[in-house]
């Protein structure tokens, strides 16, 4: 049986003790390295001995995601974690939540909503109780409260009997459980540390083992052998612990928690009558909302709250509500928020600072995403101009050097040869960065000290941190003129006396049209697609994997049935961001969520359809890839029908607008390009599907967003 990949985390700051009872609310870990290692069968033998000695070997065999990075999170700040797919965002979050990183102590309270193999889990909670109602399950997922309740119940029941031994047994059972936890942490510390600190950690481990053995002996002690002093001391300790735990439970105020849980669930889209439904009856998307609710409920009592793609199953109303909730939460507590999202508008609205995973390092920017992108472009322009000017200067100096050498050799002029040598030294040593690390002017005698430094660092122009580009084939020409879609007066209901799902739907689309449809969950979008199924012959459906044992190349080759040769199929997959061995060697069930989206796109565009129907296509894509996708779709000469909660994608692809806050690729073709061309302007329309009716928005998605903002404000004010 193959073991799961192991996360190996190291850092310089192993002096921190995992059992520190007063940890800092901030995280400041230097020299962080994270490696994902797939253990080989040989590595499982004598694993206890090889954990320390074989650490460097295991690290070398794994995939390094971070090297000598600096993890720095300040209390109460909302951070957005960005980086291309595969750079290690989810792995870093998991390493933090599971406290695999030395320097994040065990008492640090961390709650996390994360994705593992496409499934959501909620860490830092006791999980959802599938057979309980939605509201009850969310309330019972509070790990700290559950532990306090279990302790209080155990102690309370022990005092309900007349046997004086029962409270003693109860307090000793609790102490034994605590000793077991301390042994686990001591083992963890011994595995993490080496050298002098490792020696002390192993001494602590022996002490913890001895403490657990003593605790076990005391727990197993016969009632007759417990003397009066021990009986009195343990009974008094049980009384004091019960009072402490009961006070803690009273401070938690169950009634207030229930009110807050109800507010969160309603904000995330649950109806009042759905709060009593069993969790086991819910779909995966609604269970994810329950997990998100449980993490949000514990937010004020945690030090760090981590949210990995929390907007994936939310409609736009839920996204806007979550934006407002997270902003309001940071005003009342000092919880640090670290989130990952493909939704540009969501990150821009929520996050105060940006953490960028790039070149196996963590970089930081004070400001939201829009400010970061603007600053990045300014830095790229600044350093680009500086490098260009310096290259011209170097070219001039090198030409002068060649002339001096030529003239010196011809006339045997040693002065010219010395001058050429001096100038060459200046080119080699003094050309490079003109500023020091503090931003001041570079001085050789101050900033270039040390035997290992002989020249200035070269000027490096920042490169765009974007995902692989995408390219969509042009649509085939229509054999006959006319609309691609023509629907008039469509009304639908499942039974004659049931409510009307769709009412008087009209939609006509021609080649080149751009139509976007937005709406809340349950508004009838899925029914509309099912009704139009006979017309929309090429559509994107997230989660369509085909045969998961095949590679992307084999799967697509089987679907084209000889219409395209292997080279053409490889080229198509590469144009979608699935190049080389990723396409030919990796089975579909091993592809990431973002790679599956790229494969799904390749499967619907290989025969150049005239109409693309895209349903929530941005799920699992990082926002760099979303930008590349928007650019590819903008130049597609066929028609596009897009259903999405992503405001950026609707604005760019359907409305053809270049956002002020979000820079698009130069190849993007929108309204500005249409105005300069003589061809007919595309039809661009955004519709809202509400109560079965489709209403066009004169101001596009912005009009729909404004109406939802008002609704969210009303919900929060009455909540």
TrEMBL record:
Biased composition (Basic and acidic residues) is annotated at 408-417
Q: Where is this region: Disordered?
A: 34-59, 408-429
Which GO molecular function annotations are given, in alphabetical order? ATP binding; ATP hydrolysis activity
Q: Which SUPFAM superfamilies match?
A: P-loop containing nucleoside triphosphate hydrolases (SSF52540)
Repeat: present as a keyword of the record?
A: yes
Q: Bias category Basic residues: which stretches?
A: 50-59
Q: Name one GO cellular component term.
A: membrane
Q: What is this protein called?
A: ABC transporter domain-containing protein
Q: Organism classification, top ranks?
A: Eukaryota, Fungi, Dikarya, Ascomycota, Pezizomycotina
